């Protein structure tokens, strides 16, 4: 810990903890910054990372299924906007340091770090962020009071694109592909990896979605699964139109479930 560096690590499944993680967001990630710039990692790995005092470690559970992670570098001024997203996001922070010099700019992270109650949160909030390299990212954050499927009810409609979605299919009541609104969401069910290997989405713990139409080029990486009980959890996604990220993810998809398949 240093007085000129702030950090926060959060996960809904915390290493060596019996806490009620379900009360916090279904979110996993960490951020670190100084007064110049910093980075934000959003990932899908339970029980990761360990607290810094324990050194680096990667859980065996994270090796059994597919996972995602995205790391974005931001200039310092963007972290005031990220701090606002934390109101709806409500992550379960388990290791942190927000020195005094940061607290005026990062009041919500400071409260999360101290275990204090956050101010009332908007149901959902969309934030436009710019990376240090100048790329635009959209961050969708929903609170537990926005009781709906974030993919169908918000992201696809806001981005004005049909989405192909990949998420954990072992939890609770899986939601079928949905064509009820103007822009549709289809569940991916077969992934193809390099070197001619494939695996079914049932073996994937990652959470991501891409535009069905290549002209739209949206890729979203985040926290929430397409499962009924996830409507009652806070969390979010970061979305980009970076063509290289889109191409890498879109080319993985071998098969997805149509709405006709979902209704049979």
From TrEMBL:
<comment type="similarity">
    <text>Belongs to the DNase II family.</text>
</comment>
<keyword id="KW-0378">Hydrolase</keyword>
<dbReference type="InterPro" id="IPR004947">
    <property type="entry name" value="DNase_II"/>
</dbReference>
<dbReference type="GO" id="GO:0006309">
    <property type="term" value="P:apoptotic DNA fragmentation"/>
</dbReference>
<protein>
    <recommendedName>
        <fullName>deoxyribonuclease II</fullName>
        <ecNumber>3.1.22.1</ecNumber>
    </recommendedName>
</protein>
<dbReference type="GO" id="GO:0004531">
    <property type="term" value="F:deoxyribonuclease II activity"/>
</dbReference>
<dbReference type="Pfam" id="PF03265">
    <property type="entry name" value="DNase_II"/>
</dbReference>
């Amino acid at each position: 810990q240093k007085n000129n560096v702030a950090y926060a690590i959060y996960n809904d499944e915390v290493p060596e903890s019996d806490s009620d993680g379900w009360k916090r967001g279904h979110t996993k990630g960490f951020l670190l910054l100084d007064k110049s710039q910093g980075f934000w990692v959003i990932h899908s790995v339970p029980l990761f990372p360990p607290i810094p005092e324990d050194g680096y470690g990667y859980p065996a559970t994270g090796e059994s299924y597919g996972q995602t992670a995205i790391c974005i570098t931001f200039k310092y001024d963007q972290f005031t906007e990220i701090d606002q997203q934390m109101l709806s996001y409500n992550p379960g922070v388990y290791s942190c340091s927000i020195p005094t010099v940061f607290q005026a700019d990062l009041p919500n992270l400071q409260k999360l770090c101290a275990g204090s109650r956050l101010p009332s949160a908007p149901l959902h909030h969309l934030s436009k962020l710019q990376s240090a390299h100048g790329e635009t990212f959209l961050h969708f954050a929903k609170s537990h009071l926005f009781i709906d499927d974030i993919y169908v009810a918000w992201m696809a409609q806001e981005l004005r694109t049909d989405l192909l979605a990949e998420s954990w299919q072992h939890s609770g009541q899986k939601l079928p592909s949905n064509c009820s609104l103007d822009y549709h969401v289809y569940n991916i069910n077969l992934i193809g990896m390099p070197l001619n290997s494939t695996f079914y989405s049932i073996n994937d713990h990652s959470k991501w979605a891409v535009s069905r139409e290549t002209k739209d080029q949206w890729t979203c990486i985040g926290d929430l699964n397409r499962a009924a009980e996830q409507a009652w959890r806070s969390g979010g996604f970061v979305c980009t139109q970076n063509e290289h990220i889109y191409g890498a993810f879109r080319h993985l998809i071998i098969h997805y479930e149509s709405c006709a398949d979902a209704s049979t």
